[in-house]
Specification:
Chain lengths: 412, 409
């Protein structure tokens, strides 16, 4: 077997492109996760469903008996009530649905895709307008969350890097009186340092928990839910699932109503941003697990790959004799393999003569710039190093973090 | 003033990324206010009418059967509680048998969250929090991977069509082997599909899926076709109000087939609409960049002509000092810059510089060897050479794959 053969090509006649393999593996895992979850929820909730059903039949029966109303007539009345509930009416008076604040709350649930459902359009015009409105509103809000994710990762990376520097400085690895940007040794020891995805996940997780606890404290006091229900509500809302079984700020009147409504808005906004970022960071970890699984499957089929996979299994690493197997590699795949050394990925790419000359010019320009900047002590040269060689890759919001976290930029 | 990202003006010395973020926030708030006004105007009359009608019915019923308001209200409150527990007047399918629970976890991980089934026990609620944390993250990854695969397929198909077109027009010699002619590489190098084409394709795909799904829901659920379309949009965008939910009746004809069709349609629909949202968000991002540019240039008339040259990080004499406020993170996000130019502006260490020299040699070596072997995919790989990880969220997938997001125009 030739060295450099991709692990997956070993044992199948039609090797699955790695990206497709990852996608299908994820689909299979999610299907398994859904099945397992369904089983657990079914076991947890079926008894109480049976209980609630029994209780309701009892109540219906009693009422029918006590007031001498036929069951059919009662059912008819309840059917009307069901329709009224769909229009937002409840036994106890709620705040109006479609006054301006109510409509604002509704629009908020639409663009954030939370979608509680406590307010829904009843007219045809409203539904039609919703479709058009939602198309652009949701897209814009997705952009907003993605920009927020990018900003917060930048902020965290910056803070953590500053702490790391201070740590290095204190432990004497760096002379404490040098200017940033002047010493190559500093650059070397800090070059390529990026926060680990696990640290970022931890920080975001702590922040999310703190936010949820504070919000729950507010809801427990104002809405009268118990604390667990409030936490549950916070999770369901911030993850944009938005069942609608519990919805905040629905009563007709509250004490300090303006303040509460403002607090509700702020908490939901910050919570959704935070949990969205947390989801995306967790999905990096999941992606790494998938890559690891794929590698294990690949290596199991081809035991000889084991040793060489680290060196040669990387796609597009230039190795003698590996040309033959390059046919099935789509270059789009390259972009996904975000744990590759970007330098090596770069070295494997085909370019035209034009690009080659361009990159030579680039090298000269880089040198020129470095010299000029060094003379001026540009403060941020450290973090720039590592972005030199990357290119657009990664998946969705993951790409924001593609070159900013340790797990997603260095080859380890 | 040359080379400064944002001249002082209404935005002060705001970093461009932050300015973009704040501008987007302001626009979204404005969008929400306008939307609220429109919805309020459309729906308020109907709400009043519904309330009046219900009041009337309530009165009639309580009078007819000689019930006090309080008693009737108590009864309705009990029904409300039962309703939250999933009980309806007419029998619906059980909520928590296996298929019902499967539908439920589906609405959880996709974040649609209809709400027709919700956990009632404390154990269920706590388990939901942990389950949802991992499930939603995995499903977001799934949708992002789907988006990436979809863009790849679309780009590949469009590129082949583009090649065929060029070949027919005689721009490429008919018998040139891919990978051998410089001219072919030149004319196709860097060609990528436009975001507008991809958006159009996704729109058409979404429309087709929605129309087919609605055609399925209308006869089986008994909704009007328009209501089915509305349901499709609400479900596929993961908003998931829950006012209309498919597959809730106790019994259907061809039940297994319908449930399978329901699952497949919702899955494909969410994938398509999610991708569509992300592609639209690129367009929105470009609009915001354009607005920022306009705001910037209005304050500084001299910028107008020189704007193209004053791209951040272009190496120019004399503009070194103004570089201080530019965060490097900005670079990654300004995806309409020429990637090559962005590359030229980056600071690197000597180590990286030597590495990139080696890279150039390796590239040349590989090109020579591959050319000898006629590597089929030379064309598209050239354009990915110079990009680097940038862009925002799912936008980054498209960062170097669409014409608007990779080439300087």
């Amino acid at each position: 077997m030739m060295p450099g053969r991709r692990p997956q090509a070993c044992c199948r006649s039609s090797p699955l492109n790695e990206d497709n393999g990852r996608f299908l593996l994820l689909a299979a895992l999610i299907a398994a996760y859904l099945t397992a979850g369904a089983t657990v929820f079914s076991a947890l909730e079926s008894p109480s469903e049976a209980e609630a059903r029994r209780r309701w039949h009892g109540t219906l029966h009693n009422f029918s008996q006590t007031f001498n109303i036929s069951a059919a007539e009662l059912r008819d009345f309840l059917r009307r009530y069901e329709a009224a509930m769909a229009a937002g009416i409840r036994a106890d008076a709620l705040r109006p649905r479609w006054d301006f604040p109510g409509a604002l709350y509704f629009v908020g649930t639409v663009v954030s895709t939370i979608g509680f459902g406590m307010t829904t359009p009843a007219t045809v015009a409203g539904k039609a307008f919703l479709i058009i409105y939602g198309l652009f509103g949701c897209a814009g809000t997705i952009l907003f969350f993605n920009l927020f994710l990018e900003r917060i990762i930048s902020l965290l990376a910056f803070i953590m890097k500053a702490c790391h520097e201070r740590q290095l400085r204190r432990s004497g690895l760096l002379p404490s009186n040098f200017r940033r940007g002047s010493a190559i040794s500093e650059v070397d020891s800090l070059a390529g340092w990026k926060p680990s995805v696990y640290h970022v996940m931890l920080i975001l997780g702590i922040f999310a928990i703190t936010l949820s606890c504070c919000a729950s404290a507010m809801y427990t006091a104002v809405e009268g839910w118990n604390y667990i229900d409030s936490l549950y509500y916070c999770f369901v809302t911030f993850s944009t699932i938005g069942f609608g079984d519990l919805v905040s700020s629905q009563n007709a009147v509250y004490q300090n109503q303006g303040l509460y409504r403002f607090g509700n808005f702020m908490f939901i906004l910050m919570g959704v941003c935070c949990i969205y970022s947390l989801f995306n960071v967790i999905s990096i970890v999941i992606k790494q697990v998938l890559n690891w699984l794929l590698k294990k499957f690949g290596c199991r089929c081809c035991s000889k790959c084991h040793k060489s996979s680290a060196r040669l299994g990387r796609r597009n690493a230039i190795t003698p004799g590996s040309r033959f197997h390059r046919h099935n590699i789509s270059m789009e795949t390259d972009g996904q393999y975000d744990s590759d050394t970007e330098g090596r990925r770069l070295s494997g790419e085909m370019i035209s003569m034009k690009e080659l000359t361009a990159s030579n010019n680039v090298s000269l320009a880089i040198l020129q710039k470095q010299l000029s900047e060094t003379a001026n002590g540009h403060p941020r040269n450290i973090s720039m190093n590592t972005r030199q060689n990357g290119f657009s890759a990664g998946v969705g919001a993951l790409a924001i973090m593609n070159n900013r976290l340790a797990e997603t930029s260095d080859s380890r | 003033r040359l080379g400064r990202a944002l001249s002082p003006g209404p935005l002060g010395h705001l970093n461009e990324d932050n300015a973009r973020f704040l501008l987007l926030a302001a626009l979204i708030i404005l969008y929400m206010l306008c939307g609220a006004a429109v919805f309020s105007a459309i729906e308020l009359p109907t709400e009043r009418e519904a309330k009046e009608k219900w009041e009337e019915r309530f009165e009639n019923f309580s009078q007819r059967h000689n019930l006090s308001r309080a008693e009737l209200q108590d009864f309705l409150r009990e029904y409300q509680e039962a309703s939250v527990a999933g009980i309806r007047v007419d029998d619906i399918r059980p909520r928590w048998d296996f298929t019902g629970a499967f539908y439920f976890v589906g609405t959880v991980v996709s974040t649609i969250g209809f709400g027709m089934t919700t956990p009632a026990t404390v154990g269920g609620k706590i388990f939901l929090i942990f389950y949802g944390l991992i499930g939603c993250a995995g499903t977001i990854l799934f949708f992002n991977l789907f988006l990436e695969r979809l863009i790849t397929v679309i780009a590949y198909i469009m590129k082949s069509c583009h090649e065929r077109q060029l070949r027919r027009k005689g721009v490429l010699p008919h018998d040139s082997r891919r990978g051998s002619g410089n001219s072919e590489v030149d004319s196709l190098a860097g060609w990528k599909p436009s975001v507008y084409y991809v958006m159009l394709i996704l729109c058409v795909a979404s429309l087709i899926i929605s129309c087919c799904a609605s055609a399925m829901y209308t006869p089986i659920e008994g909704w009007s076709y328009f209501d089915s379309l509305y349901f499709c949009f609400v479900a596929f965008s993961t908003i998931g109000f829950g006012d209309l939910v498919s597959s809730q009746n106790a019994q259907y004809e061809s039940q297994g087939l319908y449930r399978f069709g329901n699952f497949v349609f919702i899955l494909m629909g969410v994938c398509c609409i999610y991708s569509l949202f992300n592609v639209i968000s690129i367009v929105i991002k470009q609009s915001i960049n354009w607005i920022l540019k306009k705001l910037d240039c209005r304050c500084c008339p001299r910028c107008q002509r020189k704007f193209f040259r004053s791209r951040r990080n272009v190496v120019m004499p004399g503009n070194v000092r103004s570089r201080r406020n530019i965060s490097i993170e900005t670079d990654g996000v300004n995806e309409s810059d020429t990637d090559g130019r962005r590359l030229s502006g980056e600071m690197i260490s000597m180590k990286d510089f030597l590495a990139s020299n080696k890279v150039s040699l390796a590239i040349m070596q590989k090109q020579l060897s591959e050319t000898a072997n006629g590597y089929p995919r030379q064309l598209s790989s050239s354009s990915k050479q110079n990009g680097f990880s940038g862009g925002v969220g799912a936008l980054a997938i498209m960062n170097n794959r669409l014409a608007e997001t990779s080439v300087d125009r």
